[in-house]
């Protein structure tokens, strides 16, 4: 039977053209899409509507990529913003900003989930990790746009390709270039996509001249092969989970090849629009495609391809060894277990220091101070929770902001009660954050970031329409945010630990701070 394509339902949520898609590499049952409407959607193949949505962000989303376990997703935008989202909690795990550029491609490190590699429109490669807001590594890799970035499964090598027809490989553990693959006279065109072999140092690439090439990274040379496919350029390339085969897909052809035997190949005619992602699984091949604002997932069974069929191993009948047969016919012996001798009681030695020793006195004093602090904070938490219950969140925040007391405790409570923050009380919460920033920057900025992510769509729709329900609340919230600007500028001048986060928030949510 010839290979067949099975199309999942066409999904529509974007209001402007889709720019990027990513298929979950673990299950293949979820995929993400981002577009010019500045929204990021997460889809399940069984649902018509998105299961999660994020945004709108400050610029169109140009690229996105899942982590290997599908628990996180990273994305980049046209204004240089890079972020990793925890899909379980729906919160931003980390975010970074590259000034004056557009991000074109992105990938997550296979072992360090808050580490991402991105390429930009100017040929630069940035490696971000953890809290530092500046990249930990920067490479000027290409002349012109970077088209693909990939990190090997072992996590030590980074491969990039661009419009300059080059493939660069970097050792990110040493922070230096590992090798460069130059074009040949036969194959000389922009490299559109790369993929690493799951277990060996082999790299697959597809190019604009319709060629597919496989390289031995140990020697940085092309392996046997290098062939041209169909009439259109393959847009995506991907290894099978066992690495035995590699698949590529263009708008008219889905092709499979043996990794180390280039003469063995299988092709299938297709008719697809924009190929955004390609994944090969044990039981199927998934292709993410888009057309204007619509997205869909195309599936093909691997068993329909000759190269992907697995030979069933015949089970051999196991015959017991002569020793086992001899053991089975022997009569069972009665085993007698002798009782253990009784345990001798041991004297109990008091290991605690005497009450008159200096160590004991110091311990009691420090413990007393510690317990006093805990008791005081517990009392504040209790009063805050009672105030929220009796008077409402807005009045409780106004009281804390006026008294300049218990701001950190109030912020800690609000981080656990995010659902209770709404457009009507958000401005009062920002007043508490103003005081909290001066005491605990990290805690206060974390709450501010979550509020902005949650309420920005509501306030932006209400800001320009006096008839909207939250028009007055949007104005009050904007006024409260403007009150933070002077404080933020002072902290940024002093380069406090939270200054980079302040700068990013003021850039990403600029309309609230001007």
From TrEMBL:
Keywords: WD repeat. One of its GO terms (cellular component) is katanin complex. WD repeats lie at residues 11-53, 139-180, 184-218. Transmembrane segments: none annotated. Gene3D superfamilies: YVTN repeat-like/Quinoprotein amine dehydrogenase. PANTHER family: KATANIN P80 SUBUNIT (PTHR19845), KATANIN P80 WD40 REPEAT-CONTAINING SUBUNIT B1 (PTHR19845:SF0). GO terms for biological process: microtubule depolymerization. It holds the Pfam family WD40. This is Anaphase-promoting complex subunit 4-like WD40 domain-containing protein. The keyword Ribosomal protein does not apply. Residues 60-107 form the Anaphase-promoting complex subunit 4-like WD40 domain. It comes from the Eukaryota.
